[in-house]
Amino acid sequence: MARPRLSLRAKVLLASAVLLVIPYVGYRYVQEMENFLREGLESSVLGAAQALAGALHDRVDLLAGYAAASRSPAGEIFVHPLAYPMQVDGYAGDWQEYRQNLKPVGPSPGAGSFSARYLAGHHQGYLYLLLEVADPRVSYRRPGYPRVLPGDFVDLRIGERPQDVRRYRLSPIAPGWLSVHVVSERSADTPLRQREPRIWAQWQPREDGYTVEVRIPEMLVGGYMAIDAADVGPELGRVEARLSTAGDDGAGRPGRLVFPSPEIAGIIRGLGRTPGRRIHVVDPHGRVLASGGSLATEPPKIDINPLFALLLRPPPADLFEEQPVAGELEGPEVAAALAGNRTARWKTTATPDVFIVSAAHPVWIGEQVAGAVLVEQTSLGIQTVRRRALADLFTNTLVVFSVAGLLLFLFANRVSRRLARLRDEAERAIDAHGRVVGRVSGSAAGDEIGDLGRSFSALMGRLRQYNHYLEHLARRLSHELRTPMAVIRSSLDALAMRDADPDSEKFVTRAKEGLTRLETMIVRMSEATRLEEAMQSAERERFDLDRMLAASVDGYRQTWPETRMRYSGPGGPCVINGVPDLIAQMLDKLVSNARDFADPGSRIEVRLGIHAQRPVLEVVNDGPPLPPDMTSTLFNSMVSMRGDGKSAEPHLGLGLYIVRLIAEFHGAVAEAQTRRDGRGVVIRVSFPGNAPSGKTALRHARAPKGK
Amino acid sequence: MGRQVAIVEDEDAIRENYADAFRRQGYTVATFADRRSALGRFRERLPDLAILDIGLGQEAEGGFDLCRELRALSPGLPIIFLTARDSDLDTISGLRLGADDYLTKDISLPHLLARVAALFRRVDALRVPAQADQVLERGALTLDVDRLTCAWRGDVADLTVTEFWIIHALVRFPGHVKSREQLMEEASVVVDDSTITSHIKRIRRKFQALDPDFDCIDTVYAMGYRWTCAD
User: Fold this and answer.
1) Rounded CA gap, A151 and A238, in Å?
2) Residue of A nearest to B198 (CA)
3) What is the DSSP string of B31-45?
C-alpha cells in the first residue's frame, strides 16, 4: 500500500503546530502570576490587618468598654451604625438590610405565641429602634374611660446609669403615630399624662402582630436601655405576658447600649484609604465597632483587542456591589482571630472570577483578646491585571503566529518550489528513451538543495558524456577499425594479384569475403554518424511527401518484386519542409525493417494520412508483435529485436535508430506499436503541423523536363 | 612505364602494400611517412603522381598542407587524397585544394591501380589535342573520356575522377535509372548508399555553381538516379 503523500508544505505546517505550545505556556504563566498576585494580596491584606491591630494594641481606652461589656452580654443592646436615616412609619421595609441583626427580646420564643425581636441603630444623632412583636391578639388602649383600659404597650427604659432610668411608654390607641408618655418607675399603671414629644414612634399592625418604629434623639439616650413588651388581654385589662431585653420580665436592670467607636473609626481613617479595601474592627463578640473603606472600585479602563474581548467574558463591568455593613461579623476568620490566631480566607462572590479575601488579626490587651481587625479586599485588581496579561498574550501570540506562520509558509513554499523545480528539471532532462535531452541548471544556492541541484547537474553531465561516448562508440570503433582493415585488404589484394596456386586462392577468397562482411558492418556502424554529419549540412526544401512516397513504393516494388506492397495516400498533395533524400533514406530503413519481419507472402502497407493537421506516415506489416518491454528502446542505437537465426547480412539494430534520427531532424516523432489485432506492427512517424499545401513552387520527385 | 609514384602514408603496412602493388605494375615508387621528408624530396624532384594520406603522424591535416605546397610546385601534377573517413570527403571538396580525386582507404588495390592508370592516361591525353571520338556530348554537357574533363555549356566543371565516372555512367544512357550499386561499380568505389548520395550532391553543387538552373540529375527514390536532360 502506498504511503499517503504529505507534501513538504503540509509537513512544515504540522511541525509548526508545535508553536501552539507557546500560548499554552503563556497561559500557564499568567495563571502562575495570578496565584502569585493572590498570595501578594493576601499578605498585603493580612499586613494591613496586622498594622491596624498593632495600632489598637493595648488601647484599653478604646476597647476596654467592649471587653467589659463582653462580660455581661445580657441585656446589651448593640446600636448598629445606619447608613441612612430610617423612616419612622411603622414598616420595617427600610430596615431590610439590617434584618439579620434582629435580636429576640427576652428568652428565646417558644413559650406561648407572644414573642418579639428588636433592632437598634443610630444615624446622625438619632437612635432608631425597630421592634417586631408577634402577638395573636393586638389590643389597643381605650382612652376616656373612667378607668383607662390598657392595651398592648411597649416600654423603653433609658438612663445614664442602670439604676437611674426613665421609663417611656408606647401605648397605642390606634395604629399610626404614637404619643410617647413618660411613666414613673414606681407606678407603672398610672394614667399617662406627661408626654415626650421628642421621641417619635409609629405603631403598625401586622398579620401576626405589630411593628413599632421609634426615633430617639441621642441627647436623651444615656448609656443604658431596656426594651419591654407587654401583652394585655383585652377582657381583663391585665398584662398577661411580658418580654424584656433586660430579662426577668421587666424587673431586670437595663443593659448597656453598645455603640461603635468613633475613635477607632478615626484610627481606621488615619490608616489611609485603599480603594477596594474595607476594614472592620470587631469586639470579642464579633460586633462591628468601626468600619472604613469600601469594596467598590473603579473599573480601570484597559484597551483590549476587540477580538479578544469576544473570546473572554466581559469584565465585571458593574462596580462591585457594596455589601451591607453587617452589625455583627461572623466567619471562620473572625472566630479564629477572636481566638487569638490571625487568618485569611477567600470568599466567592456573586460575580464570577471575583473573590474577596478577608484577613483577621486579633487585637490584644495584655494577654486577652480584646477584639479583632478584619480587612477585606476584592480581587478585582488581580482580575484586571490577569485580563490585561491575557489580552497581551493573545495579541502577541497572534502577531508572533502570523509572522512565524508567514515566514514558515514562505520558507516551506520556497523549499517546496525549488525541490519541485529540481524534480521537474530532472524528469525533463531524460527523455523516454533514456537520452539526456535537457540540462539541470546547477544553482548557486549554498544549502543542501543547491548541492542537490549541482549534484544533479553533474550527474546529468556525466550521463550525457557517457551517452555521447556510447553513441559515438560505433563511429569511433569504425574509424579505428578502418586502418587495420585497409591493411588487411591491401595485403589480401596484393596476395591475390600474385599468381598463386589454387589452394592459396581459395583461402584468399574466403579471407576477402570475411573482410567484406566486416567492412559492411563497419559501414553500417558509421552510417548513423555520417547521417548526423550529412544532416548538419543538409538544406531543407518544400516537397510533396505524397508524390515521393508513391514513387518510392513503386520503386520498391520494382526492386523487390516478391514483396507485396501498397501505398495509400491522403488523396492530395502533402507538402512538408525537409530533406527529400533523408526521408527516402528513412523510408528505406522502415521498409527493409518491415520486410525483415513480415510474414512470408504478406503485404506491407505504406500509409500517409493527415491527423489534426499533422502528416503521419505509417508502415504496417503482418508478423510477430513487439516484445512489450522494448517499445521505448526500439529506436535506440544497436537495439535489435532479432533474437536468433542467422541472417545473411550482419544486423546491428541501427535501422530504426536512423529512422529516429531522421524523424527528429524533421521535428517528427517516431513510435512503434503492436497492431490492435496483435498480428503485426505499425511504425508511425508523425510530422509537425501541416504546412499549407498549395501553389508554392515544389520540387517534385519526378518531373518530366523537356529539353 | 617508368613513371614515378609518390606515396605519403604514415601507416607502414598500408604504405608498403601499396608500394608493392605499384611496383608490380611497373611504376617506380617513392614512399614517405611524414610531410617534411616528402616535401623535402618533392622540392628536389617532383614525382609523376602523388598519393597523399590526410593524417600524417602528428599533423592531422598534414595532407592538406602538403597538397597545397605540391600544387604550388606543380599545377598539373595528379594528386590523389586517401582518407580513412568519408566525412573528410566533404571537407576536402570544400577546400578546393585542387586534388584530382579523393578516395577512402578501403578501396581495393585493383581499383586504386585503375584510378592511377586513368589519371596517367589523362595526363597523356592533355598533351595532345582532343580526340573527337572520346568526347561525349549530351545537350549542354560535354565529357572527354580521355582527359576526364567535363564541361557544361562550355564551362569546365571541376569534377574528380570518381565524380566524372558517376556522371559518365548516368549520361551514357540518358533517362535510364542507374542504381547506387551500379554507380559504385562504375566509379570503382565500394561505399554505402549515403556516400553515393553525397557524391551526387557535390556533383549537383558543382554544376549549379556554373548554372543555377541545373536540374538534370533526377533522384528516383528507392531506385537510384538518372540523367533527365535530353539531347
Assistant:
1) 9
2) A534
3) EESSHHHHHHHHHH-
Q: Are strands B135-138 and B155-157 parallel, antiparallel or unpaired?
A: unpaired
CB proximity list for B192: less than 8 A, separation 6 or greater: A523, A524, A527, A530
Chain A 221-240, CB below 8 Å of chain B: which residues? none
| Residue type, position A707, single letter | K
Contact (CB, 8 A) for A449 and A415 = yes
Please state the length of chain A: 707
What one-letter code names the amino acid at A186? R
Number of helices followed by number of strands (H, E) in chain A:
13, 26
Inter-residue contact A580 to A541 (CB < 8 Å): yes
For residue B10, pLDDT beyond 80: yes
> Could you tell me if A304 and A390 are in contact, meaning their C-beta atoms sit under 8 angstroms apart?
no
Tracing cell 409609629 back to the chain, one arrives at: A202
Look at B220 and A555 and tell me if their CB atoms are within 8 Å.
Answer: yes
pLDDT at A28 over 60: yes
C-alpha distances (whole Å) from B134 to each of A418, B84, B130, B150, B188 are: 77, 34, 8, 12, 20
Give just the sign of the alpha carbon dihedral A418, A419, A425, A426: positive
| A166-170 LR contacts (CB < 8 Å, sep 24+) | A168/A196, A168/A199, A170/A201, A170/A203, A170/A212, A170/A214
- Is ipTM over 0.85? no
Q: And the C-alpha cell for A149?
A: 383600659
Q: Are B34 and B28 in contact (CB under 8 A)?
A: no
What are the residue ranges of helices labelled H in A132-271?
262-270
Report H helices in A16-104: 21-56, 60-71
pLDDT category of residue B4 using cuts at 50, 70 and 90: very high
Inter-chain Cβ pairs, chain A and chain B, closer than 8 A: 117
**A134: which strand partners?**
A115, A209
Q: Identify which of B108, B194, B222 has the shortest CB distance to residue A531.
A: B194
Distance CA A512, CA A499 (A): 16
> Which residue in B has a C-alpha nearest to residue A556's C-alpha?
B222
Using one digit for the tens of pLDDT, what is the confidence trace for B121-161?
A: 888 887 777 666 678 888 888 888 877 888 888 888 888 88
In chain B, count H helices and then E strands: 8, 11
Q: Which one-letter amino acid corresponds to residue A675?
A: R
Residues of B with Cβ-Cβ distance to A491 under 8 angstroms: 13, 17
- Please tell me the distance from the alpha carbon of residue A432 to that of residue A420, in angstroms, as a whole number: 20
Contacts of B192 in chain A (CB under 8 A): 523-524, 527, 530
User: Considering only CA atoms, which of B183, B157, B159, B178 is closest in space to residue B228?
Assistant: B178
- What pTM, to 2 d.p., does this model score? 0.49
